[in-house]
Design brief:
Elements (H helix, E strand, L loop, with lengths): L1 E6 L4 E8 L4 E8 L1 H4 L7 H23 L8 E5 L5 H18 L3 E4 L1 H12 L6 E6 L4 E8 L2 E7 L5 H11 L6 H9 L24 H14 L5 H32 L7 E5 L6 H13 L3 E3 L3 H4 L4 H12 L20
Parallel strand pairs: 1-4, 4-5, 6-9, 9-10
Antiparallel strand pairs: 1-2, 2-3, 6-7, 7-8
Helix pairs in contact: 2-3, 4-11, 5-6, 5-7, 6-8, 8-9
Bound molecules: 5'-O-[(R)-(carboxyoxy)(hydroxy)phosphoryl]adenosine and zinc ion.
């Protein structure tokens, strides 16, 4: 079984070819970061047009790298939501055209299910497992019971973790996307300098909240980032990034402890995924917590945590194995919660 995966839901135009024996035959990503950077975030219209320009060559590149032709494909898997609808439509229309012309099955993949399942490509992770999903648009604790069967145990009541990283970066004049910049600066900073809030810490449940934390960072920037020399400003930014990251870590750990306390006893595996899972500081904090609770901790390699088409192809393989193929008339969806598959 060989599947082509297509991903166009945000600002990466991506295509990958994956085999059912867990071999990644190719993984091509064309990042649009440079096109969105002047605006400090993703501009949906620019993203959609850019996907249109690059998707065809990216697919050809993926097939070439994998040394396969379109005739070798068993099926085509495509992100059909959630995401920026213009981009999702570009990927879905291309996938439908290929599937119709080649008379091959098409599989509509939920982007979040892609993030959830990619750990099963890289590691032996049986269902059920706990998924910590942290991306630009989502921050959720999910019980992955089986393919297509997910229960949301907790989620953010305002901003997603990645969004908070991006907004903190923006108010410190760091480039988009903010996560990697904040992590880099935080490495040199003093995380005790700024006493930031830990929203929801100590409260029952396992929901998250990051909006107050982001606002607290903005208030400190507005009141204290004045008349600083370039050296002082650099230290200010590093200390604030470190303090912010420490607050995020504490919130995550507090919420996860609550989650562990109510988890069914057969959940022994915890998977971390989504773009924020690229953050080494948070990765190792979560790993320590899982080990302290005698759970195995699995985080896919960083290039498979941030958006990619390998995860879409793999989710397609898992679905095709169970004969879960889609009709050609499925609709792209801007919103598509994981517990509504
Ligand atoms: O999963 P993803 O690539 O796209 C979405 O589906 O949203 O996640 C992108 C998010 C961005 O908010 C980005 O700032 C964040 O992941 N991110 C990070 C890091 N790398 C990416 N956040 C914190 N630390 C990082 N190293
Ligand atoms: Zn994503």
């Amino acid at each position: 079984m060989i599947i082509l995966g297509i991903e166009t839901s945000c600002d990466e135009t991506a295509a990958a070819v994956v085999r059912d024996d867990r071999q990644i035959l190719s993984n091509i990503i064309h990042s649009q970061i440079k096109e969105h950077q002047p605006y400090g975030g993703v501009v949906p219209e620019i993203a959609a047009r850019s996907h249109l320009d690059y998707l065809s060559p990216v697919i050809q590149h993926a097939l070439r790298d994998a040394h396969v032709t379109i005739n070798d494909l068993s099926a085509i898997a495509v992100t059909s939501g959630p995401g920026l609808i213009g981009g999702v439509m570009v990927g879905v229309m291309a996938a439908k055209a290929m599937a119709a012309a080649l008379n091959k099955p098409i599989i509509a993949v939920n982007h979040l299910e892609g993030h959830a399942l990619v750990a099963r490509l890289t590691h032996d992770v049986p269902f059920p497992f706990l998924l910590i999903l942290m991306s630009g648009g989502h921050c959720q604790l999910i019980l992955a019971k089986d393919l297509g069967n997910y229960e949301v145990l907790g989620q953010t009541i305002d901003d997603a973790a990645g969004e908070a990283f991006d907004k903190v970066a923006q108010c410190l004049d760091l480039d988009y996307p903010g996560g990697p910049q904040v992590e880099r600066l935080a490495r040199q900073g003093n995380e005790k300098r700024f006493p930031l809030p830990r929203p929801l810490k100590g409260r029952a449940g396992c929901d998250f909240s990051f909006a107050g934390l982001k606002t607290a960072v903005r208030n400190i920037v507005e009141s204290e980032r004045k008349n600083l020399s370039p050296e002082e400003d650099q230290i200010f930014k590093a200390d604030l990034c470190a303090s912010f990251q420490a607050a995020i870590r504490e919130c995550l750990i507090d919420r996860l402890k609550n989650c562990f306390a109510h988890l069914p006893p057969n959940i022994n595996h915890v998977v971390l995924s989504g773009g924020v899972a690229a953050n080494q500081y948070l990765r190792s904090a979560l790993e320590d917590l899982c080990h302290a609770h005698e759970k195995s901790f699995i985080a896919p390699p960083i290039n498979l945590c941030t958006d990619n088409a390998v995860m879409i192809a793999w989710a397609g393989i898992e679905r095709l194995k169970r004969n879960l193929i889609s009709d050609l008339d499925f609709a792209p969806r801007p919103r598509w919660p994981l517990d509504q598959l």
